[in-house]
Structures are given as structure tokens and as C-alpha cells.
């Protein structure tokens, strides 16, 4: 059942993104930023945590989940360090994901030997 919930919510995020691409003039980059900001806003109003607990990876893996992790890190940082935590908390909360993306990007670049366009 956990896999079904993750699939439904993750799929719903994909469907919304595809509709935005097909029916609006928004660029994919703006849609991605909108997803991250939506994750932050939904976390701030207390709606994303219950969704993430219910849907699991279907809510935490997409870009809205990155916004959720960022906002959660800021909340924890502010609770721990005050105003300075507003700056450091988001970085601390998302450091693992960012580090993994950088590391895997380097590994893939070495394995596939990318070439410049042209």
C-alpha cells in the first residue's frame, strides 16, 4: 500500500507539471522553481509534513520534497540558533542531497565522457 500511495502522489506531481508545460507558457525552469517554492510554502503552513508522512517517497523525492526539506531545515535552524539558523538551517538540511547530486554528476561525467556541443 505504501508503494501505491507514493506512486499516486508522485504521479500527481508529474501530471500537474505536464499540464503546466502543455497548457501554459511557463518554461520548465520556472515550473521547477514553482515546485520548490510550493514545497516551502506548504511546509510553512503545515500541510506538507502530513502529506510526506502519508505518501513517503512520492512526496519527498520530487522537487516539492526539496522545498520541504529546505523549509524544515530552516525551521530547525531557527529553533536552535535563532536568526542565524534561518540562513544555515536550509543549507544544513539539504546538504546531503546537494552533495549526492554533485558527486553523482562527477561520476557520470567520468563514465560517459561528455563532449561540448558543436
Describe this structure in words.
This protein has 6 helices and no strands. It has 118 residues and is mainly α. 23% of the residues are buried. The mean pLDDT is 90. Helix content is 85%, strand content 0%. Helix 2 (28-44) packs across helix 5 (63-81) and helix 5 (63-81) packs antiparallel against helix 6. The longest helix has 30 residues, at 83-112. The chain has one domain (2-112).
Order of helices and strands: HHHHHH
User: DSSP strand (E) fraction?
Assistant: under 5%
Structural class: mainly alpha
Fraction of residues in H or I helices: over 70%
Number of strands: 0
Q: Span from first to last CA?
A: 48 Å
The whole-angstrom Rg is 17 Å
Integer count of domains: 1
Q: What general outline do the C-alpha atoms trace? A: globular
Main pleated-sheet profile: none
Label this structure with key terms:
118 residues, mainly alpha, globular
Record the SSE blueprint.
Layout: H1 2-23, H2 28-44, H3 48-55, H4 57-60, H5 63-81, H6 83-112
Summarize the structure.
By secondary structure, the protein is mainly α. The chain is built from 6 helices and no strands.
Amino acid at each position: 500500500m505504501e508503494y501505491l500511495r507514493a506512486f499516486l502522489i508522485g504521479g500527481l506531481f508529474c501530471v500537474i507539471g505536464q499540464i503546466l508545460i502543455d497548457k501554459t507558457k511557463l518554461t520548465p525552469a520556472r515550473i521547477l522553481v514553482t515546485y520548490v517554492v510550493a514545497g516551502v510554502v506548504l511546509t510553512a503552513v503545515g500541510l506538507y509534513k502530513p502529506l510526506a508522512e502519508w505518501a513517503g517517497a512520492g512526496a519527498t523525492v520530487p522537487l516539492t520534497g526539496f522545498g520541504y526539506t529546505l523549509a524544515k531545515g530552516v525551521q530547525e535552524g531557527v529553533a536552535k540558533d535563532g536568526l542565524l539558523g534561518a540562513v544555515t538551517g536550509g543549507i544544513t538540511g539539504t546538504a546531503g542531497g546537494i552533495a549526492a547530486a554533485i558527486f553523482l554528476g562527477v561520476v557520470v561525467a567520468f563514465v560517459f565522457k561528455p563532449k561540448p556541443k558543436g
